[in-house]
Fold this protein.
Amino acid sequence: MPSLKDLKNRITSVKNTRKITKAMQMVAAAKLRRAQEAAESARPFAERMNAVMSGLAASVGGSDSAPRLLAGTGSDQTHLLVVMTGERGLCGGFNANIAKLARARANELLAQGKTVKILTVGKKGRDAMRRDLGQYFVAHVDLSEIKKIGYVDAQKIARDLLDRFEAAEFDVATIFFSRFESVISQVPSAKQIIPAQFEEADAAGASAFYDYEPSEEAILADLLPRGVATAIFAALLENNASFNGAQMSAMDNATRNAGDMIDKLTIEFNRSRQAVITNELIEIISGAEAL
Amino acid sequence: MADTMQFDLVSPERKLASVQAREVRIPGAEGDLTAMPGHSALITTLRPGILTVVGPEGTAEYAVTGGFAEISAEGVSVLAERGVPKAELTAAIHAEMMAEAKKVVDVAHPSVADAAVKMLSDMEALGAHINA
């Protein structure tokens, strides 16, 4: 049985832990709000961009002169998986879930005899996948120094991707990130960005009646690289919101668990103190009786 | 015909403006153009320049680069990779834009080098609008 002092120490230590997790939860909540706002204000741009591009893609897509970013290289041998995770842990299954999805996809592609390359964004995903897929890593993007994700960060990643695409390093690029549904639900998702894919629904907003200046092809060629950056930017923001949401609920749980533990330890502490007092009393009384 | 139309200026990070406008002067890739209500539907890419919005509440000017404008009879929406209210366009921001444009010129693929050089000169011209 632990001594009174031990129990007291443990209670203090758990109390400190609770303070930390509570603080982390509040920080995550504040950051989440900002991340959500950022994600929401980025939405109009991405939606418009997609609508216009899918309209253009629908009218240009069939022709032979379609840009390679849209039509692809004509092969799907080499796949580049861009795995976006957080830079930090303490966020429940957030990083693990994304890594799991990416790993499943990588294994599936490898089983089909395709070549897989992996580009990681965020330290945690890199660590999680290093052991079994480390040999396929081609590059890593470190965002840990960046406090607020800006469009320029997405542009940097996009430029890197486009350079690699130009250099024929891969045929298909897919990004893995976590879609933010709510604080308690973040869905790991995959999205193919090169060659660009558009949902049918978007294309319905027919672009046929628009005039284009310069030509449709030229506009599309101009927009597609920007579209890649936009998609990456949107994914980064979603990811950021998801990360903070996951961290908030993880820390909320941790705080609650710490509270339960403190209650349990306090009861144990009181019981053993009671036992000590009773013991002392018995000793005094029996000593007095013996006289 | 309505004498105003909806004008939206959106950057990847946020919505910069969403107002009623009587006319919008757009620095299009193939020349400046002015859109007024009832303009025929047009999509054009942007070159770096000053975008002017004339509305019932007055005139607003923005420095924009990279992106496109979508014009329809009911409104204009401009998607710019970078958009700054002209009043906030400082030498520092311009220098940053210039540096970016120069980088593009340096690494430009031969097929688009002309376009990149043109963009750089447009960018330089934009510098003339900096508030002293």
User: Anything to note?
Assistant: Residues 167 and 223 of chain A are 20 Å apart (CA to CA).
